[in-house]
Amino acid sequence: MINKKFLLLCILIFYPLKSMALIEVDITRGNLNPLPIAVSSISSSEADKVKLKKELKIDDIGLEISRVVENNLKTSGLFNPLDKEAFLQKPDIAHLKPRFEDWALIKAQALITGKINLKDGKLRVEFRLWDVLAGKEILALAFTTVPKNWRRIGHIITDKVYERLTGEKGYFDTRIIYVAEEGPKIQRIKKLAIMDQDGFNTKYLTLGNELVLTPRFNPTNQMVTYLSYFKNLPRVYLLDIETGIQEVVGDFPGMTFAPRFSPDGKKIIMSFAMDGKSDIYTMDLENRIVERITNHPSIDTSPSYSPDGKYIAFNSDRSGYQQIYVMKSDGSNVKRISFGNGLYGTPVWSPRGDLIAFTKLHKGKFYIGVMRTDGKGERLLTENYYQEAPSWSPNGRVLIFYRETKTDSKGEGFSAKLWSIDLTGYNERLVNTETDASDPSWSSLLSN
Amino acid sequence: MYKNIIISSGFHIFLIVIATLSLPFLAKKPIDLPPIISVELIQITDQTNIPFAPKAKKIIEEVKKKQEKLVSEQAPPKKVKKEKPDAIPLPDEKKEVVKKIEEKKQNPEKLDNEIKQVSEFEKDEMFDPNKIAALIDKSKEDLAETTKKLDKTTQSQDLNMNLTGLTLNEEDALKAQIFGCWSIPLGLPYNENLLVRIKLKLKPDGSVIKTEILDHARMNKPGQGFYKVLAESALRAIQLCQPLRVPTTGYERWKDLQLNFDAREMLEG
To answer: What is the ipTM, given to two decimal places?
Structure first.
């Protein structure tokens, strides 16, 4: 009885506290507009400018680095670099202490400033990232390298800024390997080529005497595997980009397709075609032992490991039409995951592990799309008459692929180009290449 | 005896202290008056029986006649509609129809003068004295409905004010403002527990005096980079939006406000 009275008393005393509770408002939506960012020119002394101009034949290296950063941020689709003409503060003063009111006035929410020093022939670039609205510095780093690496510094700065402002790793200090194509369609010369992700610094790795196909980066280092024809027989090659050393992994019976590295870089997974069927095999690069993964009287090809190495996605026509399947890395527990209309192929597991990119052919059109690893949530990102071979950026946010188009209005002639698209499907861009290009593969970050 | 009195007084003092601290009506807070709405009271009789002046009567009769004419001559626009073919004509036929319509538009003299003079708006403006009573009745009904609505709104507003602090309209206005200012970092994963709760102290004009991230410890924890990025974006949104769109009255209610930023819905979509 006493307890009940006490309880009642407590309720009467403490109930009014509820009326004093803090007002809460849930904000569940925002805008997806690119973040306005000001990239101030990287300042340097006049003496250093003259020395660098002699060495690199560039008038203002600081300005050029800031342009690399600007271009990277713009192509990501997440940032809106503001016009330098609108800047009210000089780069050197802004680097010491920005007048945040001036930067807020031109609607900048973030500001990048920097300074270059040349010492003992080495370039030292420091940069700061400022939160304009909070009025504080949020990142400051310095890099030292040889002057000719100035573009890479721009890419590394972009990576750091991107990571600090979006929360995910960048993908700018990376390279893309692809098949450079020249000449008419029936006598096409195909060479292996490599370039920075923004299309600069292109180098050709093969001479074009033999046909090359499907180059793929090792996710852990700068090794590449690709397929090349020698005396009309396909061979799988390994190429070390840093040293240029190339070796043949092996001659395999029948046709070999789509070699790709395992996530730890120790195995190559590929498909061999024999007697009218094709199966998936792996090869251990240390002991060269080949292991059969699938054994089905159908065409199984385009295998791709999940980032943890536990699963493999591949395409197969075992259901009658080409569809995407997922299995355990030992070949057990095969499950079909694509059930939409049309044919599905070239599955590529995202480095984040959450999505699988694919090419879809439906009613004469090719689509590049993504689906979750259980096949749900299919989203088609881009549509065209011929496009395929998606490859993920190392942060799993952007896909690069190639698209063939007719070059004139009569529908004659053709051209193959690299394109990139991000996961939103809105930010589609042509990637500049010196020649026609196909079969791109994105490297991991060069600097971690 | 004394012991019991001391215990009793002790409990009484405890109760008074607790009640003073917790019961809001005991705390001396400035009285928060609701906004004053001026209401003009007008009494209207059910019917007005003022006889028309002879001149006015004539004018009204003339207008009535004109209106009758107008009503009977409203057919031409319908004719135009009828002229429109039901099926899509062949290219040659189509050209003819277009020509016909153009001719009508380009030759206004062909149109009836009376139709030309009277527009739909003018027709609406002409009133029928016989309908005045009906109009007054309708206005009374409207007034009654509006009063009912107002009564309801006031009650619900009061309820909302007491329970949540902001009415739905006030909350929507604030949300809409912040939606526009918050650039969601698109690189964040949608499947992580990323809810940023920020407590604000506001000035009466909606500008922000102080912001406090309630789970501040997460900001500097290793492996909480995503949380930090989201929290910073939320703080930027608040800075960008201020002064916030807060109600013009009831400062005591919303001077302390908590915003819960949750981007999962957007990132998942």
So the answer is: 0.73
